Amino acid sequence: MASPPRLKRRREFLRVAGKGSRAARPSLVLQALPETAGPLRVGFTATKKLGNAVVRNRAKRRLREAARLLLGQDAPPGWDLVLIGREGTGGRRFDQLLADLRGALRQAGVLPQGSGRPQPPAAGP
Question: Which of 85, 94, 24 is nearest to 54 (CA)?
Fold first, then answer.
């Protein structure tokens, strides 16, 4: 699966934060802005409140992988998304992180409410 295109410029992040809607979950905050044309693009950020660079980078890596799994190929076009890491991002079980992201995407209207996307298999017995 390919990763969705990225938001990289500060002004893109600020535009989504200023005009978009927000959905908060224990492990992340999603900011979503519908656009009329173009592919879905995703940006990732983590503030210094989370901890040092190692902690922030781990949180962003986990968010990138969750976004790749949920939005990789069948991403609905026309959205700019910003995923913000929270304290729970680094230590939360990955299946719970995916559920948080899926719920936030539904709340923001990116995914339909009854989206039957396949979930990755649960780890362990």
Answer: 85
